[in-house]
Specification:
Elements lengths: L5 E2 L1 E4 L4 H10 L3 E14 L4 H4 L2 E7 L5 E9 L12 E9 L2 H10 L3 E15 L2 E7 L6 E5 L3 H10 L12 H7 L7 E5 L3 E4 L3
């Protein structure tokens, strides 16, 4: 796999949003903005991508941009949250219409696994992004994405986070830690909550 498609990131769970933002400011990071992001994930009708621990996502970034991504967990030991993955492959494109992309995938035979949303507060320092993410039904978390694990460790320590507590996994695994199977959900919404699929 081309290295440019591998994300170098880690999540830290159950954070205090106000304290972390104070630390980010002290650390010299700059706040970019707060966004409500909405997305849909797609798979073949036989869920072959899910079986391969991968998925396709169309996301409204909440800042006027729309992205189309293929994502795949790398080095996953199991499907749940018992251990960290080795990383995440992501191939991302910028597109101009959430609705057209959704219609496109449906037209060629894909199905919507679920729709979801989250609130994201983004801070940046040099080549490091700090995304505070708030999902329906979960405690806030921060995702640090940069160019090396060493930089993640340095950044985490500056924010008062324990590097050994990092999680290298998807938000679905964060839900799994709370006993919630995202695969059983058709919608993840602040207003409507976690809606199970009918089957």
């Amino acid at each position: 796999m081309d290295a440019k498609y591998e994300e170098i990131e880690a999540k830290f769970l159950d954070i205090d949003v106000n304290k972390i933002q104070e630390k980010l400011k002290e650390f010299g990071a700059v706040k970019i903005g707060e966004f409500l992001q909405k997305w849909a994930t797609f798979d073949y009708p036989d869920w072959r991508l899910d079986k391969d621990l991968s998925w396709i996502r169309v996301r409204d970034e909440g800042n006027g941009e729309i992205s189309l991504s293929f994502k795949k967990r790398l080095g996953a030991v199991d499907r749940n949250a018992s251990s960290n993955d080795e990383g995440m492959q992501e191939i991302q494109l910028k597109i101009d219409s959430f609705e057209k992309a959704t219609d496109f995938f449906k037209a060629i035979g894909f199905v919507v696994k679920h729709t979801a949303e989250k609130k994201r507060i983004r801070w940046v320092k040099e080549d490091t992004e700090f995304d505070i993410d708030i999902y329906p039904g979960l405690e806030p978390m921060i995702e640090i994405e940069t160019t090396s694990q060493e930089k993640i460790k340095t950044s985490a320590e500056a924010l008062g986070l324990n590097y050994e507590d990092r999680k290298i996994f998807s938000s679905s695994q964060a839900y799994a830690l709370k006993g919630i199977d995202v695969g059983s959900l058709v919608k993840i919404s602040f207003e409507e909550g976690l809606i199970k699929r009918d089957n």
